Every structure is written in structure tokens, then in C-alpha cells.
Amino acid sequence: MSLSDFFSPINPDKFSPKQGFLTSQLGLKANFYTDRFPDLEENTYDIAIFGVKDDRGAVNNNGCALGADHFRSQFYALNEGAFTSKIIDLGNIIAGKEISDTYFAVKTVVAELIKLNVLPVIIGGGQDITYAQYMAYESLEQKVDLVVVDSKFDLDEDEHEGIATGSNSYLSKIFLHQPNYLFNFSNVGYQTYFVNQDSLKVMDKLYFDVHRLGEFLSDISLTEPIIRNANMMSFDIGAVRSADAGANINAGPNGFYGEDICRITRYAGMNDKLTSIGFYEFNPAYDRNGQTAMLLAQMVWYFVDGFYNRKQDFPLTPKSQYIIYRTSLKDGSGEMNFVKSKRSDRWWMQVPYPTGISKNERYHLVPCRYEDYNTAVNGEMPDLWWRTYQKLG
């Protein structure tokens, strides 16, 4: 089966201004699947954009299946930044006869693109498509660190219109799926009044990382180490406040500001580990003046900009590019090691594997902040270290 079997081609002229694209705009910089499916094995492309025209799993947000084309009208009119982009737009995955058929298509496409070292950017569709995005890693037999930007936890157990995996329940499917390839889950930006307290207890019991919106209002850079740990990310456009992104019937008055969500997506692009990203729940039926389409286009632009500014500084080799700092706990129970990149000034924490767990590695590297190092310098164990150690066991 060829990847072309899953896609319907697109006509880029449909998204261009009346006078056509300018030479500096992405509409003339990107390539498109129009009549002949591109050869993805020639190492020609870094990023593949595609839409998913299926909103059967979107709870109370019918119409978000049409989001991809509205996004394209804004995105390709943006100017290329200080980078040379190698982007291919593969068109749209049309909804299958059953929603499971759509999931299969997304899973297959994402897995194949990752194998080819091409990063998929998915424009949904409902956020339940995240489940299919995750399933791609099962076929790759790869452990996953998942980061979701959302105002709530999608852990509901009730079926949505007879569909087991809805946009309000896909996380439950991921958490319970066997075999389990999920190493860590992080939520960025939940709002407490949308969250069942029992769900918070579940997250704590599983040693997952969940972060309230209020944690980032004074300093959005606090999201960077969380995002730097992700292999895959999923954005619900409803995590942005409705004044900035109202094209989602579930949008609320509180959420991330437009400029902050763009910084978050740039952090995502700069993450050397990240191999897939999805933007979901954008509904053009509620997009007054095209504002949300423009914001989504700018989010993806910042992601691309971050991608082409990756530092490739994950602490492996050569050691001359890093500084190792050693600290001791107050009670004398042990030593903690931190690694700082000379290239980017970013920090990682070394968390040792419990005895006998890993034969090939002595420790697991976790992105952290300078503040975590200061906590250890003062003789205290950072909470991130303990949670990670528990997961490793």
C-alpha cells in the first residue's frame, strides 16, 4: 500500500492571493502534492504538512474537519523566515468509512514519515486524532514522551455518539493501551475548574507531569524544559483564550495568549527529540475574520522557525560541549549530576536507572531548569528527579 492511497491532492492556487504568491512567501517556497505523489525517500523534505478531514470524534465541535484548507490560506501567505525551508504539503486524509479507518491512515502515514526522517505536522480534525498519532510509535516500537497543550484532561469514559475514542476520552485510550509505549505524559496549561480532582490523583499516582495555566502566566519560558522532553505533541486550539482564538465552540475566556502560544510552538520546533506534532479542534465555522486561522498559521510558522534553529545539543558526545555539575543531598544519601550545554545554556538532569533495569545505560537524561540545579545545590531533591526515578523503576 502506497502513502498516496491515503491522500487527496490539493491545488495551491486555491490558497493564493489574487495576484499570486510573492517570491518570499511560503506558497512559493513549499512543494505540494497536486497530481503526482512526491518521492519522500530522496531526503528532499524536512517537514510534511497534511490535513485530516474527520471530525466524528470531535465533541461538540462539528466542522473542524474543514480546518486544514483555511489554515493553508493564511500559512502560505506568510513570508519565509531566516531559514531555507524544505516543506511538502501532502494534501488531506479524507475521512474513512469508519473512524478507525481514518486512525489507521494517520498512524500509517505518521510512522512512515518518521522512518524517512520527515517530521509530520498534522492539521486536524478533532483532538482524538492524537490517539492515531500515538499509535504510529507503537508500530515503530518506540517509547513515547507525550506533551499535550490543553485546558483539560481528556479522560472521559463515556462514548461520544457511539465512538469509543472521542476528543474528550482519547487520553484514556492511550493510557490503557497495551502494549504500553507511553513513558511519560505532560499536560501544559490545564485550568483547574475544568478538571476532575480524581483525574489529578490519577496523574499523581502515575507520576505524570501536569501544569496549571497559572504557572506560566508570569514566565512562558517555564514551558520549555517540559516541551523539550517530548517525542510527540498535541495542541487543542481551545487552550488559547477565545479572544485570541475563538474558532472552537469549546473555547473559553481564559487560556494562553496568542504571542505565548507562538513561543510554545517555537520551543516545540527547537526540541531535538520531537518527531511529530498535531494541531487540532480549529473550526473555521466560528472563525470571525479568519483570526484563528491566522494565529494557527503563525503557530506553525514559529514551529518551522524553531525547527530550523535546533541546537542538536542533547548531551551525548562530544563531552567537550557540556559542563557536568555534581551536587550532594543534605542527608548524605547520594549525589545528583546535572549537565549544561555550552551551546545553548540548556540544562539536563541525570537520573540513574534502578539496578538491573537497563543494561546499556546508567542514567536517564531529563530536561530541567537552572532552578532545579539550585534546589539540588541547597541539598534538596527536585520533585522532577523523584518522579522520573519512580517511572524508571
TrEMBL record:
Entry keyword annotation includes Metal-binding: yes
Highest taxon listed in the record's lineage: Bacteria
InterPro entries listed in its UniProt record: Ureohydrolase, Ureohydrolase_dom_sf
Coiled coil: none
Keywords of this entry: Hydrolase, Metal-binding
UniProt family annotation: Belongs to the arginase family.
Name of protein: Formimidoylglutamase
UniProt organism field: Pedobacter boryungensis
